[in-house]
């Protein structure tokens, strides 16, 4: 995948290296709120303080960039930032064609644990999109694990190409595009419709709705790839196969490995790998949003 030399998004929040941990310290505001809660509402001050810590952690001002990134860390951020910019430019153009304006999401890079408005997430849970704060959360170790699962050692093509170039870069772009697809669903009002329908549905029906929502995000990732290809010619031989492999290999087993946080991960309700590949291809070939109506046709 060709990605160097294009615009890097400014909507990237780099919280790697424990940027989120700062909120774990003593906060005067938290202590005051805890005291008030205890004094006037009879809330156990320790509990109240814990609660305020969580809230302030979710609201904290984001750090921008690592202080001393290694070349690899810088490259990883540049890559993610470039793909994010690609999604911004491409979706802006698609929305404009429909007479609409595209509001891009923020993308938070993190390591370890991260606080979102959807709750606290562990890196091991995999990437997710939080509709409440309109942010995509990606831990960089996920990409490393994904490369390992895909059997990409980085030994092949040992040239001047960067590590990112060797290592399933389009598969990573596909993961980012899938999460941005959830943001597009949010902007189009699809996410809230699904949420409403799920609240009235049985567990089984609810899971089926989730599968359709996930497959639509795959289709939207394909629509993005189609238009991004026209705009930038970024695809190289083997890239699409690479994404298909990723769709096949990153799934339930990875995401279920240690789902212990409060965030509901992008999990086993993704559909089968065959379904995922089919819908990504549908989006990629057509480049047409209307072909991505996974809710009103058999998946
Ligand atoms: Zn998803």
From TrEMBL:
Protein's membrane topology: Single-pass membrane protein
Its domain of life? Bacteria
Classification of source organism: Bacteria, Pseudomonadati, Pseudomonadota, Gammaproteobacteria, Moraxellales
State which residue ranges cross the membrane: 21-41
Q: Where is this region: Disordered?
A: 1-21
Localization terms from the record: Membrane
Keywords per UniProt:
Membrane, Transmembrane, Transmembrane helix
The molecule here is called: Neutral zinc metallopeptidase
Organism of derivation: Acinetobacter radioresistens SK82
One Pfam family matching this protein: Zn_peptidase
> InterPro entries given for it?
Uncharacterised_pept_Zn_put
